[in-house]
Design brief:
This protein is mainly beta. The protein is 7% helix and 34% strand. The protein is built from 4 helices and 41 strands. The protein has a 10-stranded parallel sheet, with no helix packed on it. Strands 16, 18, 21, 24, 27, 29, 32, 35, 37 and 39 form a 10-stranded parallel sheet that branches. The chain has a 4-stranded antiparallel sheet with strand order 3-5-9-10. A hairpin with a 3-residue loop joins strand 1 and strand 2. The longest helix has 40 residues. One of its GO terms (molecular function) is NAD+ poly-ADP-ribosyltransferase activity. One of its GO terms (cellular component) is nucleus. Keywords: Glycosyltransferase, NAD, Transferase.
């Protein structure tokens, strides 16, 4: 390759395609920021401190590290090597062509051997471009009986993704447009290797052998009926497409179903990238806008089904025994003594969706995950974002406009249940023993001798409601109830809001807060428009409970088991024995009136209520809140108004950490003290423990805020962005300064008296 300069001189840039192996965690960084020897050139500096590229892929293979799925990543890059010379470890740039002349030109790159170079070191990022990503794995397999005495090892190229490119391809038995890959039918005898490839950031379509499709990435592959079948469809990042299954039609899908071999070993590994859209149908039903279809394992031998799907895609799938429209995902997994992973990811905008449960009907739903297993490692992940109406029904009731219902039960297993949802309209779900409207999530998890993780994430911009098992509720936020024995539990609460907030404390006083915060007294009165109330109790456990909520213009309410409430969002009930339990709830609110009731009182316009108790444990309670509107919640023994956070923690023989963070803009807030009233407050943290190490951190940033706090026996005064710390040390310093003020005049008088006596003595001596 040559370049003209001024129409005369031609310079050779010597462009080559070279390989670069790297670690999985920095692949995305290279795609976004190109190679950077300062960050990514960690492994070798023998020929210079630049970016290394190899002529042979076998050399780069040694630097391509495996990820959790045993996949390796290698870049095929265009590199302008230009003129080169032998490199050494001390080179930070190419050496001069004429060392005796300081003004001489530099070489363009360094190599290992000048006569026959296999390694090139480039120091300028403008000289290389990552053109392809090659994802592959190294596999050991036992072949047929003729080769049973030895294993063959070969690398399977899964996909080579062409970055920032557009292309089309048609399938053998259908038509397609804007596609990257066509369908491949594996051999019926011997070894079948199906390796389609697709580039990044492109759009395309492809059709399956028995159907039509548009904007797809991968077509269905039928594994071999005899011998060894290896079906490896691959899809790149940020593309869109559709594909149809062998027995149905679909639109805008990513992966179709793959039928494993009926004899031998079947390996079905569909993969899907980020930010794509698509639909696919299941073998016994139709669906639209889906991501992955079901895979039928082999009837003889070993079947390995590993579907993968990334975040921020769109699609719909139907269940095997029912029809559905505009749905997200339905994962049903059951196994014994196996490692089972079920991952579902979905994002929807302005979509009407519906799915039905096995024993009920539903409309406009998102996800329903049902997992049961024994002696296995089970992971069930559900992710959903939506901006329209959605509904789902529970096994024993009906519901409308709901998001997720996750029911998980297992014995002696590791269970993970992740639910993520964002919505900007009405949603409803019903609990097993009650009715509800406009709700978000209901997660019920029970297990024995397991590690359980339940994650709920929700964002909404309209009305939401859910009911508790023994009462009704409407337009509420979150209610998390966790009880366990001999477990590790974490309780975190995070809240965003753009209005005023208020809460009352049970009746104690917090003494110190961090820099740029102020002293906040506790309260035992009524409250309205509150944010969070965290109460934790447990036995012999480490407890973590995370709640995060964001809402826009929403009226929300929830009721506790012994009272009624309206405008609710989430209800999380978790119970387990001898397990590690994590319950995460995420929610954000803006300009919202919210209400929740405590077990022994009523409240209005609240956000979260977390109840946790523990003994002999390490307890961490984190609360984060930002709000620009009014919110209130009531404590178990009283009411309060316009507060932010209330953290109540009690434990014995534990290490306790309570962190509260709050940022407010243009907010009036109020909190009452145990024996008085107060207005416009921020945080209240109450911690009590025995034989423990206790850390209580409160952080608050306020802009243009009138703040008021009242003393325990008097009225409140206004403070604006001041840091007030009340403690015994501060009080001691204040008393000392006051004492010093009294001592100074006495010392001055005594010194003047001594000087007078000295003058009298001198005069007496002169007279003598």
């Amino acid at each position: 390759m040559t370049v003209k300069i001024d129409g005369h001189k031609r310079i050779s840039v010597n462009e080559r395609r070279l390989f670069h192996g790297t670690s999985p965690e920095i692949v995305e960084a290279i795609c976004k920021q190109n190679f950077d020897c300062r960050l990514h050139g960690k492994n070798a500096t023998r020929y210079g401190q630049g970016s290394y590229f190899a002529l042979n892929a076998s050399y780069s293979h040694d630097y391509a590290k495996e990820d959790m799925n045993s996949s390796r990543f290698m870049f095929l890059a265009k590199v302008l090597v230009g003129s080169y010379t032998r490199g050494y470890s001390g080179h930070r740039r190419p050496p001069q062509k004429d060392p005796s002349n300081l003004a001489s030109d530099l070489y363009d790159s360094c190599v290992d051997y000048i006569s026959n170079p296999t390694i090139f070191v480039v120091f300028d990022t403008d000289q290389f471009y990552p053109e392809y990503i090659i994802t592959y794995s190294t596999v050991s397999k036992s072949t047929s009986s003729n080769y049973s005495s030895r294993q063959t090892r070969r690398a399977r190229l899964l996909y080579a993704a062409n970055l920032y490119n557009l292309g089309t391809a048609s399938n053998p038995s259908g038509s397609a447009a804007r596609s990257g890959y066509a369908a491949s039918t594996a051999s019926t005898l011997g070894l079948a290797s199906v390796n389609p490839r697709r580039s990044l950031y492109n759009r395309g379509t492809t059709s399956n052998p028995s159907g039509s499709a548009a904007r797809s990435g991968y077509a269905a592959s039928t594994a071999s009926t005899l011998g060894l079948a290896s079906v490896n469809p691959r899809r790149s990042l940020y593309n869109r497409g559709t594909t149809s299954n062998p027995s149905g039609s679909a639109a805008r899908s990513g992966y179709a179903a793959s039928t494993a071999s009926t004899l031998g070993l079947a390996s079905v590994n569909p993969r899907r990238s980020l930010y794509n859209r698509g639909t696919t149908s299941n073998p016994s039903g139709s669906a639209a806008r889906s991501g992955y279809a079901a895979s039928t394992a082999s009837t003889l031998g070993l079947a390995s089904v590993n579907p993968r799907r990334s975040l921020y895609n769109r699609g719909i799938a139907s269940n095997p025994s029912d029809s559905a429209a505009r749905s997200g995902y339905t994962a049903s997994t059951a196994a014994s003594s196996l490692g089972l992973t079920s991952n579902l990811t979905r994002s929807l905008n302005n979509i009407l969706e519906t799915t039905s449960n096995p024993s009920g009907s539903a409309a406009r739903s998102g996800y329903t995950a049902s997992t049961a297993a024994s002696s296995l490692g089970l992971t069930s992940s559900l992710t959903r974002s939506s901006n329209n109406l959605e509904t789902t029904s529970n096994p024993g009731g009906s519901a409308a406009r709901s998001g997720y219902t996750a029911s998980t039960a297992a014995s002696s297993l590791e269970l993970t249940s992740n639910l993520t949802r964002s919505s900007n309209n009405l949603e409803t779900t019903s609990n097993p023993g009650g009715s509800a409207a406009r709700s978000g999530y209901t997660a019920s998890t029970a297990a024995s001798s397991l590690e359980l993780t339940s994650n709920l994430t929700r964002s909404s911009n309209n009305l939401e409601t859910t009911s508790n098992p023994s009462g009704s509720a409407a337009r509420s936020g979150y209610t998390a109830s966790t009880a366990a024995s001999s477990l590790e539990l974490t309780s975190n609460l995070t809240r965003n809001s753009n209005n005023l907030e208020t809460t009352s404390n049970p009746g104690d006083l917090l003494h110190e807060v961090a820099t740029h915060t102020r002293l906040l007294p506790l309260a035992c009165g009524s409250a309205a428009r509150s944010g969070y109330t965290a109460s934790t109790a447990a036995s012999s456990l480490e407890l973590t409970s995370n709640l995060t909520r964001s809402l826009n213009n929403i009226l929300e309410t929830t009721s506790n088991p012994s009272g009624s409430a309206a405008r609710s969002g989430y209800t999380v009930s978790t119970a387990a024995s001898s397990l590690e339990l994590t319950s995460n709830l995420t929610r954000s609110l803006n300009n919202i009136l919210e209400t929740t009731s405590n077990p022994s009182g009523s409240a209005a316009r609240s956000g979260y209520t977390a109840s946790t108790a523990a003994s002999s444990l390490e307890l961490t309670s984190s609360l984060t809140r930002s709000s620009n509107n009014l919110e209130t919640t009531s404590n178990p023994s009283g009411s309060a108004a316009r507060s932010g956070y209330t953290a109540s923690t009690a434990a014995s023989s534990l290490e306790l950490t309570s962190n509260l963070t709050r940022s407010l803009n243009n907010i009036l807030e109020t909190t009452s003290n145990p024996s008085g009233s107060a207005a416009r407050s921020g945080y209240t943290a109450s911690t009590a423990a025995s034989s423990l190490e206790l850390t209580s951190n409160l952080t608050r940033s306020l802009n243009n805020i009138l703040d008021t706090t009242s003393n325990p026996s008097g009225s409140a005064v206004q403070r604006s962005r001041s840091s007030n710390v009340l403690s015994s040390s501060v009080s001691s310093r204040g008393l000392q300064r006051a004492a010093n003020k009294d001592v100074a005049p006495r010392e001055k008088k005594e010194k003047e008296k001594e000087k007078g006596q000295m003058r009298d003595n001198v005069n007496t001596e002169d007279t003598n």
